Amino acid sequence: MRKVAGRLAARFRVVRLLRRQYRLDISSRSPCTIAQEAQDVLAVAKAIGEPALVVGHSSGGVVALEAIVASPPAFPGAVLYEPPVVIGPPLGGDAVGRAEAAIAGGRPGRAMTIFLRDVVQIPAYAAHLAGLTVAVAPRWRAFIPRQINDAAAINQLGVRLDAYAQIQIPVILLGGGRSPAHLGTRLDALARTLPHAEKVVLPRQGHGANQTAPGDVARVIETLADKVLG
Class for domain 2-34+46-88+160-229, per CATH? Predict the structure, then answer.
């Protein structure tokens, strides 16, 4: 979210959280839960000490939802970009388990290919290429087990729509018109569930609009921030 934050920093105090799940100084063999990460978000909000709009992209959106549920007064509003919430069967069916087995077998590139193809659901050729590319770059290779742990943590959380139905703050559900279809389905489920949700679709963007169209994402965040932060 660095590019998005940079566009907001001229008008707002922006704090980016390095999520516990992705910290390389913590062993990936002891993965954390979404509930633990939600508590981290609440700790940051408390340290800020003033009303803060919470923004979450992808699994970060799931963490943001859980932080709001855990402490409803903590945030006056939220912008969530395609959080892959569980709305029925686990994400990717048995794909996360297969990816975990690949990690255990010393095949992180294979694990990433499985994740991208069967969980994110990008085309198979693109998933294979990305898996190979990430696996040979030492820095990115280190993040692969954490990405799989993140997906497993969401599946462990399970279906939480009943809890999200109690959220009373305004929430913008942001999506990309070119994102994998299942992400749109999950976003629609949230739109039907959250009492004060507005769905916004960036028509020419996919799941990574925070990178490819940071200005568009920042404008959506800015619009809600102006309303709820005064």
Answer: alpha beta
Query: For residue range 119-149, what is the model confidence (pLDDT) as tens digits?
Result: 999 999 999 999 999 888 888 899 999 999 9
Q: What is the pLDDT of residues 175-189, one digit of tens each?
A: 999 999 999 999 999
Domain ranges (residues) in the chain: 2-34+46-88+160-229, 95-155
Q: What tokens were used for 71? A: 């402490």
Q: Which of the 8 DSSP states describes residue 106?
A: T
Are 91 and 128 in contact by the 8 Å Cβ rule? The answer is no
108: CB partners within 8 A, 6+ apart? 102, 134, 135, 141, 144, 145
Q: What is the pLDDT of residues 45-81, one digit of tens each?
A: 999 999 999 999 999 999 999 999 999 999 999 999 9
- Calpha distance 153→135 (Å, rounded): 22
For residues 59 and 140, give the distance between their C-alpha atoms in angstroms, rounded to a whole number: 18
